[in-house]
Predict the structure.
Amino acid sequence: MLLLFAVRMVRTGIERVFGASFRRYVTNTGNTVTAATTGLFLAIVLQSSAAVALLVAGFAGAGSLEFVTGVAIILGADLGSALLIQVLSFDLEWLTPALLAIGGGLYIKSDQQKLRQTGRIILGIAFILVSLRFLRETMIPIRESDFLPSVAAYLSNDHLTAFIAGAILTFIMHSSVAAILMCVTFVSVGALPLSATIALVLGANLGSALIPVWLSRGMKNEARRLPLANLLIRGAAAIVALFVVTRLPMPQWVLSWGDAQALIIVHILFNCTLMLALPVCGLLNKPLSSMLPEVVNIEQDNPVLRTALDASVTGKPQQAIACLRREVLRMAQLVENMVTPVMQLYDEFDLSRMRALRDQDAKVNLALNDIKRYVASIPDNSMSDEQRNQTRELTEYAIALETAGDIVGKQLLTLAQEKSEDGVRLSREGSEELAVMHDSLLSNLTLAMNLLVSDDLDSARLLLEQKAEMVRLERTSRKKHLKRLSDGSAVSFDSSNIHLETLRSLNEFNSRVATLAYPILYRGGQLLETRLIENLDDANTS
């Protein structure tokens, strides 16, 4: 459990540091080799090939990623996960005290979001090393028991059972990294023979491909094709490898490294072999498209475009508030659809797309008007004080979302059009700074939508911390922009108004999104009434 917690801790920290930046890294890949390299990098960063597969599936479902590119990224992620196991298998226990001290210090003491999450990542790596030590120490006495040798002997003679056991273990743990590290620990202390652990690891490869297939079962068919393609490639290769590896003698150069390292080498070689499927993975697109055809959403059947307000339950406050919450969430999704492609319009302006996004703003405005009328129709005498507070908070957040939609429609889209018509070109550094802010904004909007459903205090604190981080990003970008101006950059001079206005609009949008955190934190007693000094005389005296 410590190993699973540690792997998740590292992944959570990295996701909170980079946020929606992964969308840019993933969707900007070119050929299959570049895509596979991107997947390799992401798997090492996220410490999970399954997480990369789900990330890629989401982008494919949104139409941002082609099938071949997506499969290449997932196969590259599998190799990255294997290389990560090699790194974690080294004897790094001497680093544990330093990692615990540095990571704990940053996580507990730092006020800056990025430093705090960096501390979380370092702590997670330390916990991984500690958990592996616990596993080794636990297995030593078990190795000397009467039970384990009989199990080891059985698995050595029945590789198919070992293969299935590896797949089930990985699927239950939902982490191929954790499962294979356990196998490496077993063989390193002599608890299991090499032949049995090879079968377990090959089964773990099948199990790791099953995880994203299971987790993506509720996604669009376009998204589900990629995990399924990975399962077909990876699963078929694992079954073939099981019969090949367990029937052929292991090369002497592999055995000379020791059983634990030999197991890791087999795992890495298996995933390297999967790279051979890159040139032909596109052949799976047609049969999988037939198996999982695209579902064309008719506008009136699209839940994002259909109101969630039910006039028949206005006399039942609890049900009415549930409808109201769903409608506010729908508003947030509409606003998300508006703001997501903004930076693409800055790069390649499309007038028809801009008009379509402004049409979305009209839907957001209509949703707010419907919410106001719906709240007014709920009998006031039928609600408790708590229910009145809930309706007021949801209405206020709907107003904030409508304002956020106006920022997109009237400010950001106008700036994108002005940039295109005047032929303004942003500097490379300026474009990167705006992209980072936009990525953070998307991540915060997703967090806010989750908060609409959960009312989680920790998430509310994180959203407010991210608001402060966005203010810092705006301030830093403004200073860098002014520095470029003082250095005489002609590109920065021409784009100065566009750059500064975009910074302000992105920060203003994020401020509206973050307002949801305030009432939740206030109810939880985690929000100060004021930041002003209460007694000026005492302050002057001190």
Observations:
- The chain has 25 helices and no strands.
- Residues 385-421 form the longest helix (37 residues).
- Residues 254 and 261 are 8 Å apart (CA to CA).
